[in-house]
């Protein structure tokens, strides 16, 4: 019998994540994509890597420093993981720099270039010098470092210059200084002709104005990354908001875990910097081009060059939501399943906005995890509260990197009179749910929204997600119990129709997998998730594969399961889809379950299944089920955006071998456009039926 706990059967979580980011990098290398689209993926790669170092690498360092030997199913120790991560990233850095150089070389004929101060003409130098004195000099921060001037505290992701200076009157007198470049300044100074000048190149030419009486010997740009993971001891805090605000301040000053420097950094400059910061040598990365890949968004966002991006797509509002009928009356007639961003997120916003104005609505209950800035949903909730409606909002203050934004919204909601819950002790509330209660003819009627993504209209245009809207009593009654659990006391925390983590979702998933396993060769599972880490789920899938169950997993990011291992997982196929939109839904198909289709806010990770409050929703409406199964089937067939995971942990781009190209993002855009045009001329019994016909035709 094969030991399914054998470490060789599992990919390491952190190395699997690095493979995901490499797939993002491959999009930047794809010469078939428009140039700014490629640059966008390079910016995403850099942003992802920043967060990985701030959280994952910082966490491994803390474990190692504490002498704790813990590991996942792969059994790698924290030190082994750190070594593998550093080796991987130092090797990949050459690919990154070559990719960046290649893209910018190709952009030059299109009118976009990145040049240093020395590379522009005399008139442009005058413009840059004027810009420096008017826009940079007043806010830049020159800092001397010596016995009387301590090394400055550098916040997380601080960027600036290390300068080596000589006394103008005595060249033998050399000193070091730091020039901090505040975030209020753009990363590049943009000239009118599409030329971008890295700001350090401009600052370096004016160092002697910042340090009068000294001449510049050498400068090196730098960027620091600190531990940004906050540990909040909730039981020690009387005021959770107060301790969170303090935690946000501490985040900026966490342990330094990475140093990025320009190519002119020599041993003397590194030693000067490291005497004060103590960054481990293998966490120092030297770049031959400018630092901070995430800053490329400044160039990507130049609207004058929008033609160098992939064609934009305007999400559509399809029947029955495209009529003027009250959305609550529509939901009383039928359930609705939306697939964003192909189908607009506006009906979800309208659901809350309509509720805030509807005289018959008595209460609105909602969870907010990442709502974004200038949220129309939060504003509608505030309006509803101020108009006298009962508004209850669970604002998750522990949503990483959105804590500050959520604090602002929480205070504003409280001020409007809403009842705000700040979280559940020891758990993050990651569920996406809204419940509206109306009084109709002296009776109460409820309407629900359950989603796989956040209530954020901005990200809903670039993330794929699913929204399920219903007025079925079995769902709304359970959602009432869910919100009662959040606001009150409960030792059970179990629902009847829905499934809630941490107590119900994992047992339900294991039961569903075992049910397919019992059907052996007749079993069939399709699961679309962001990450697969949970050991128990993986072992259950291995057992299902051993029994003959055919399993397709669409896993965007981390996958610790190894497919294609003889006697273990040869019936499991894993693909990752990276393309125009960020794949974000969690949806599952189990052939031999009476319901068959589920959507969820939870990934198959321990943190989601046992450390968070999540929801799993059974989709019983036949039209909605058909629609989801179509989407899953289409994505399994994708041969343009898909990479397939091999048993050694590597990914390979799926080869078409002369077959018809199936790009699920492009096809779904086309489908929705055709449906939108067709429904203006005819009224099909359901949009899903028309979509099915178009799918067959395509």
CATH superfamily of the largest domain: Polyphosphate kinase middle domain
Distance between the termini: 46 Å
Percentage beta strand = 15-25%
CATH class division of the largest domain: Alpha Beta
| Low-pLDDT stretches | 232-248, 683-688, 692-698
Domain count, please report it: 5
- Report the average pLDDT across residues: 89
Number of strands: 27
CATH architecture of the largest domain: 2-Layer Sandwich
Q: What level of helicity do the residues show?
A: 25-40%
Number of helices: 20
The gyration radius over C-alpha positions equals 27 Å
Structural class: alpha/beta
Largest sheet: 10 strands, mixed
Overall, the morphology is: globular
CATH level 3 topology of the largest domain: polyphosphate kinase like
Task: List the SSEs and their pairings.
Elements: H1 13-29, H2 35-65, H3 78-107, E1 113-114, H4 122-136, E2 141-145, E3 159-167, E4 174-180, E5 188-190, E6 195-198, H5 199-204, H6 207-210, E7 214-226, H7 240-251, E8 256-262, H8 267-277, E9 284-287, H9 297-300, H10 327-333, E10 336-340, H11 346-357, E11 361-368, H12 376-386, E12 390-395, H13 403-416, E13 419-421, E14 428-429, E15 433-440, E16 443-451, E17 463-470, H14 473-487, E18 499-501, H15 505-518, E19 524-529, H16 535-547, E20 550-555, E21 572-577, E22 582-583, E23 586-590, E24 597-600, H17 606-610, E25 612-619, H18 622-637, E26 642-645, E27 651-653, H19 664-678, H20 687-697
Parallel strand pairs: 1-6, 8-9, 11-12, 12-13, 14-25, 17-22, 19-20, 20-21
Antiparallel strand pairs: 2-4, 3-4, 3-7, 5-6, 7-8, 10-17, 11-15, 15-16, 16-17, 18-25, 19-23, 21-26, 23-24, 24-25, 26-27
Helix pairs in contact: 1-2, 1-3, 2-3, 11-12, 12-13, 15-16, 18-20, 19-20
